[in-house]
Trehalose 6-phosphate phosphatase (Rubroshorea leprosula), 369 residues
Amino acid sequence: MDLKSNHSAPVLADPGLSNLLPCSPDLLPTVLRRKNLLLDDIRARRSWLDAMKCSSPPPYKKTKDISNELASDDKDAAYRKWMLKYPSALLSFEQITNYAKGKRIALFLDYDGTLSPIVENPDCAFMSNEMRAAVQKVAMYFPTAIVSGRSRDKVCEFVGLTELYYAGSHGMDIVGPVRQSISDGPNCVKSTDKQGKDVNLFQPASEFLPMIEEVFNSLVECTKEIKGAKVENNKFCVSVHFRNVDVESWETVGQCVLDVIKNYPRLRMTHGRKVLEIRPIINWDKGKALTFLLESIGLSDCDDVLPIYVGDDQTDEDAFKVLQEGNRGYGILVSSLPKESKAFFSLKDPQEVMEFLKSLVTWKTSSAL
Ligand SMILES: O=P(O)(O)OC[C@H]1O[C@H](O[C@H]2O[C@H](CO)[C@@H](O)[C@H](O)[C@H]2O)[C@H](O)[C@@H](O)[C@@H]1O
């Protein structure tokens, strides 16, 4: 039956879809099902497009332009109001250290947007030497881990310190510091580091390596015509960047990713700051990595341990959630804009993160006197 030529058929009351859906009553259930599928599709598309649009608002700068003064004052007021819910970790430093008295602090630091500023080219997200020195110093007093969506090799190269734990690929690739291997166990593989020393790696998604490689190649191929799109191989996950893509082409980027991953039901797509991330569907994230690392360092199930996790991105929320739900430690969200979070405190930007790290060292060294 030619559905379009059936003029007496009821027309379903959806302006966007009605021209597709006139039908005879006996076909109504099928057509309704089709309509629901279409609506699901439209809703899903709207939600990932909205997520792409909200994925990283520009950093807020107070403008000198008088015509914008009111707007910027409004933003200041909104930020101050937000800070009542997420107080500054710097202004609340005494509260933090009072609580930390007699406890062992363990530090977990995200990389992009936390230790290094967000920049247009992901290959150039370098941290400053001053930040490096601050991280090095703080790691002398507290066990410190870098937890990043980047590949472990890349984030190790950026940070360049050997005294830290590193969790790359959103925690799917973990290594301990020099002289302190992570414990042996399921999902641990033996490897050698750059100096040829034996190390234990924790890699719960190692079976996905060939699949991720394949998906990376397909994504490079299918986004190659989109100006500004960049695909980054993070070993156990892939990032598709759209920061430098015209807004009109964002939907095309999203569609490319969906077209590729629809063939891989064991992969999922998540959002970061102007980036789509494709990762294995396994039950593992930065929160699980935080728990694993605490166990590995020998600090889980101890009442005298205070984990502090500092991060700026959506994926860091999994770690904030672990701390919030376990009612232990502090999540600190790095953000210059108000946003909902499971963190307890806030810091405005990497500069404030550095001040916070330095303050921890000063507190620790002066309280030891
Ligand atoms: O967990 P993270 O360490 O925060 O890593 C998350 C993603 O960070 C990087 O992308 C982000 O930073 C880039 C450099 O500033 C920026 O250009 C990009 O728009 C941001 O999304 C990294 O390149 C991704 O692979 C990570 O997944």
Summary: Residues 110-113, 118-120, 122, 125, 148-150, 232, 234, 239, 241, 243, 272-275, 277, 313, 315 surround L263DTV3 (CB under 6 Å).
